[in-house]
Amino acid sequence: MRIYTLHTKQNLPISIDEAWEFLSDPKNLKTITPDYMGFIIKSGADRPMFAGQIIQYIVTPVLGIPTKWVTEITHVKDKEYFVDEQRFGPYALWHHKHFLREIPGGVEMEDIIDYKLPMGILGQLVHPFLVKPKLKEIFEHREKKLMELFGEYKS
Question: Rounded to the nearest 5 degrees, what angle is found at the Cα of 76, between the Cα atoms of 72 and 79?
Answer without folding.
Answer: 135
